[in-house]
Automatic annotation (TrEMBL):
Protein name, UniProt field: NAD(P)-binding protein
Lineage, broadest ranks: Eukaryota, Fungi, Dikarya, Ascomycota, Pezizomycotina
Annotated signal sequence range: none
Alphabetical list of SUPFAM superfamilies matching this protein: NAD(P)-binding Rossmann-fold domains
Gene3D superfamilies reported for this sequence: NAD(P)-binding Rossmann-like Domain
Length: 223
């Protein structure tokens, strides 16, 4: 007998990824992917102690081999399960530099995760989402969500590498949506247009009211 449909969150950290994982864990067993186990271990424990079901897998989404191994572990844990929701929240190394001072590695750092990683993640999740789309008993269509940013639509100075990667992610998600929507998979690209209220941004916009930042839980609610 196949396992219950699951949700997979790639790019789990103390902010948006964790909030999204908690939200989806209320309805599905969740798989949390992050390169550093420190980013998901306490969250996995929290979800499991609160009555949910979660596993974490150390994964480099920009590596074909790493993702292949991760999805093999998912199949071992949730034999035959379909994917009801897949959230790509991973983002590459943030580089803010003048164009003439950037190395090739600086420029490609964001692309490796935001574009290549999203492509690889989609290739692994979509077959399992198509399986869910064919399940007449499912309450909702399978949904693939990509987390974008202001840079997905606006490229500011010193942000050429980051913005290029985010533009590419938006193009990728748009193409996937047009290919897979007719097959029953809902695809969304969310433009998070502002500063997210997470530990890393604690000192940002200090002189502004609390609503100047976007709450990670609010993003999770929308997802």
């Amino acid at each position: 007998m196949a396992s219950k449909a699951i949700a997979i969150v790639a790019g789990v950290g103390p902010g948006t990824g964790a909030a999204v994982a908690r939200k989806f864990a209320a309805a599905y067993p969740v798989v949390l992917l992050a390169r550093n186990p420190d980013n998901y271990e306490s969250l996995v424990e929290e979800i499991n102690k609160s009555g949910g079901k979660a596993i974490g897998i150390s994964t480099d989404v920009s590596s074909p081999d790493s993702l292949k191994q991760a999805f093999s572990k998912i199949e071992e844990e949730y034999k035959g399960a379909s994917v009801a929701a897949a959230i790509f929240n991973a983002s590459g190394r943030f580089v803010r530099k003048p164009l003439l001072e950037m190395s090739v590695e600086d420029f490609s750092a964001g692309w490796e995760v935001s574009c290549k990683g999203a492509f690889l993640f989609s290739q692994h999740t979509l077959p399992l989402m198509l399986k869910h789309a064919g399940d007449s008993s499912s309450k909702h269509p399978p949904t693939l969500i990509f987390t974008g940013a202001t840079a997905s639509v606006k490229a500011n100075a010193l942000m050429s590498g980051f913005a290029t990667a985010k533009f590419a992610l938006r193009a990728l998600s748009s193409s996937i949506a047009r290919e897979f929507a007719p097959k029953g998979v809902h695809v969304a690209h969310a433009i998070i247009d502002g500063v997210i209220d997470i530990p890393r941004t604690k000192d940002w916009l200090k002189d502004m009211p609390a609503e100047a930042k976007i709450g990670a839980d609010d993003i999770a609610d929308s997802y």
